[in-house]
Amino acid sequence: MANATLLAQETSSAQKLDQLKKAINQQKTTIKQVNKQREELEKQLQKSDLAISQVVKAIAKTKQQLAETQQKLTTLEKQQTELLKKKNQQELLLAKQLRAAYSSGNHDYIKLLLNQESPAKVQRSITYYQYLNTARIEEIEQFKTTIDKLHQVKIEQMDQIQKLEQLQQAQSKQQKEFSQEKNQREQTIAKLSKQLLNDQQTLEKLEQEEANLKAALARIAKLSQQEESLKGLSRLKRKLSWPVNGKIRRSFGSSKQGYLKWKGVLLSAPTGRQVTTIHNGTVLFSDWLKGYGLVTVVDHGEGYMSLYGHNQALLKSVGDRVETGEPIALVGQSGGQEQSGLYFEIRHNGQAVNPKLWCR
Fold this sequence. Notes:
Blueprint: H1 2-103, H2 109-114, H3 119-194, H4 199-223, E1 248-250, E2 255-257, E3 260-261, E4 265-268, E5 274-276, E6 281-289, E7 293-301, E8 304-314, E9 321-322, E10 327-331, E11 341-348, E12 351-353
Antiparallel strand pairs: 1-4, 2-3, 4-11, 5-10, 6-7, 6-9, 7-8, 8-10, 8-11, 11-12
Helix pairs in contact: 1-3
């Protein structure tokens, strides 16, 4: 009887162990599927962020071209007004000259000679007529030049009006593309939000993103060529301006998740606001980075770098030299952020330092 009971207990334990193994395997499979889905969604997020960046830059360029075209049209309208005024003045002058010539009598030089007046008087009359004729010819040539210029202005006006229409059509198309990409991004964010992560998974995700950032900065630091003209930031403590005006939403050193701390600051700012570099330097990185979205990294020399993340669009490319206060990006919420803002770091020899020690 005891043996039967022991056997039953062993069988039950084996069944429970088997069920537990199956549950663990099922959980591993589920986690694997969720991670795969999340990776696909993050790839889609990257694609949407980059597409939005391109459209935003195209819209900005079109807007600038529209302003330039409008200015050109305004200039042409002023030229047209001046030329029409000049044309009217020349018409009046020519008409006056013709009336004066008509009222002075017959201009037939042969008849003048046959009148048998004194040679001196004849010579004076001929000289006078030649003078009037020369003046009329000059006025006619000026009139023709004015007419030609007016014609050219009208042609250029038509070209600019056509260009304006094309730019307006392009802008409309770009706005439509922007709306589509924005909707796609919002859908992706919504899907990512549905995949709720527990504290451990969130910590692991943030650890991986931080490791990716550190590795990326280490790679670009090796590639950077120190320029003698870049003197670093060591002498500029509390002298630099923040890259964007906004309230600090997350402070350097505050808790991020678990033992992880913020290595920079998160500044609240509206989408589209210009992000400016804190000091002159060279752009070392300008691309999308998981967890940080569209990122620009500027080398300031002497081991100092500044990082600007979660941008909507990047305005500079790798290798570009930038000056203090120069626009380098537009504020956004790339990288999966639900609110717009700028993530900003300062690093020295790879180690994050408190931006508040440099910016005022």
